[in-house]
Amino acid sequence: MLLGTLVAGPAQAEDGQQAAGLKLTALSVESSTVDASSGDGTVTIDWTVQDGDTAATDMLGSLTVQQVGTDGRLVGAPQALTFSFQPEWPYQANPVDGTMASAHYSYAFPVPRYAAQPTARWAVVKAAARDDRGGTLAVGRQGLARYGAAFTATHLVDSTGPAYDQLGQVVDQPEYLYNADASVTARYRLNITDDESGFFRGRLTLAGPQGATASGMFRLVPNTDGSQQCGDYPGYDSHDVWCTIDVTIPAGAPAGSWSISRLSLTDASGTVSASRRLSQDPVHVTQNGTVRASDFAISPGQYNNWNGVARLAVTMKPSGFHDGIASVTMLLDGCGGSITENPEIAADGSISLTATVPPVYTRKCAVTGIGITDGAGDTAAYGTDFHGPALDLVATQIPDTAAPVVDSASLDVTSVPASTLRRNAVLTLDVTSFVGVNRFSLTVYDANGESVGGESGGVSSVTDGPLKLLVPLYEGLRPGVYTVGFTLTDAGDLHSQYGYPSGVSLPVPGGPLHITVTDD
């Protein structure tokens, strides 16, 4: 594992002088051959790193070991051997002797069990390090050749490339992509298995009209915590991994259907498996050059969903189409999208689609994407979700401006014997509320204005008519006159207060709500 910070250039020392830098002064392997076919073959690698900066106290680095083919090309997955001067997880090697000025490292490198051939040549092909003062080391194959740090290993033969399943688009992949002005990205995911050497990297290719293609590379890469990553997915086992793949389709690439045509997978031994002529999971790329639409509108501009689902009409006028309109896909934020097959074209040439707004809590409904396909297969795309021309289609909830009103209030009992407590009285309210009362709070006060009980909670929405609430009368109330005050809150969080003895609330219609507790 090679940290990204290791590739930075030299830095200035804190005292203003040039940092002395790092040097690799020794590198060797302790055996020239190893039998790795049992799965536990190792080759000990020794190396020494000098640091001329006397103020440096720590160093992080990596050696890269990889197969070298008979033609000199690197084969399969690079194997990282990480080291640090100060012990630090997940770095694998620490000095066996020496100081920061000259530290000697040694590590028993576990040679992979599988290769594409029975024997394979391995070599240290890269060395990199960085100290805590900004000094850096970066040596490639040519610089390392003089050390001759290489060995030959006997392997089990991995003759089968990786397998895959569940190849397809990610959940939020747009069906339409507008690429007139900028490149667009199609995103996919798949599961990869390889029981022998494990997955290394792959390439996914899309095919479009006029022979056009676009490809995306993906691979397992190390994280700084010792885990691995393939696109968005963490990978803890290279034998069974999930990957996401981004394929960039250039700006102005031919309009039409682009679909997966080829998948190439390479395992850690360098063995390749390829699947061709897949022709699946298309996306519609367009510059709106044939089919177009105009006169977009949404109505009503303000909707009432306080007491149920609201329905909106989204209209547009298509043009340039052939053989009718096959489908229109509408994406929305805050409300329900849809795919409308064979929409009716009105006499004025317009199409009308329906957006559904959930009740109460949806304050805004915005159309974020409209994709159109005609009967000939030509497409057009609009809105941010499809990277197309902007849409200004937003409807909002009718505001709640009126708090609940109580037209009348009454109790089913106004006098109770103390011996019957504990019990409830029933408070009946005649309520008018534009958005609906859905919460309440009530309090029972004694003659001194002190609370002696109460209740609160939610209720089924009431916009017009009776609302019944239970008033708790607890055991132990002394004989006397008690007053009930209450608060009603609607779905828009506006509230009205009635009958509280503090005098800051509204008066109860018909007079205060009194309950007298009597002696037996």
Provide an overview of this structure:
The N and C termini lie far apart (86 Å). Strands 33, 34, 35, 36, 37, 38 and 39 form a seven-stranded mixed sheet that branches. Strands 2, 4, 5, 9, 10 and 11 form a six-stranded mixed sheet that branches. Strands 25, 27, 28, 30, 31 and 32 form a six-stranded mixed sheet that branches. 36% of the residues are buried. The chain is mostly beta strands. The longest helix has 4 residues, at 141-144. The chain has one helix and 39 strands. A hairpin with a 2-residue loop joins strand 6 (95-99) and strand 7. Mean pLDDT is 93; it is low at 1-19.
Structural class: mainly beta
Cα(first) to Cα(last) distance is 86 Å
Q: List segments where confidence is low: pLDDT < 50 over at least 5 consecutive residues.
A: 1-19
Percent range for β-strand residues: over 45%
Give the count of helical stretches: 1
User: What is the overall shape?
Assistant: flat
Radius of gyration: 37 Å
Largest sheet: 7 strands, mixed
State mean pLDDT (0 to 100 scale). 93
The number of strands is 39
Task: Please give the share of residues in helix.
Answer: under 10%
